[in-house]
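note to self: dont lose this again. the chain is below, predicted strucutre after it. 127 aa total, dont forget to put it in the shared folder this time
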Amino acid sequence: MVSEGANADGTSQNSTSHNSPARNAAADNGTPERRGITVRRAPKFVPFMGLGGVLGIIVAAFVAYGIPGDQSFDTGAVFGFFLVSFAAGGVLLGAVAALVLDKVSVRRSQRAVVESVPSPTEDDAGA
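---
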């Protein structure tokens, strides 16, 4: 864990900006720049919400066509009503599941130190 006032590599933080002359000089003389990053796996919300909607549609079809109901209502109208209700609920539950997994991924995140590597130019390749 990185303590307050220290970078991920253990060096102390200072108040220089990212465009400071010291940083530019370090980049110009070939010294790689080191910085700390946070690495985590975050879920994508749209697939979770889509899956919740599809499951809601399946449940709506089961409720409308699988369970005998009142004959005064058309099964298509019943399916449409439950489709809207259960699909919206499924999308909402999918979003909640993605939010929970996102919070878990924040807790499991790890810190890493990366160095910038200069990109090869034509002069370096010998062309």
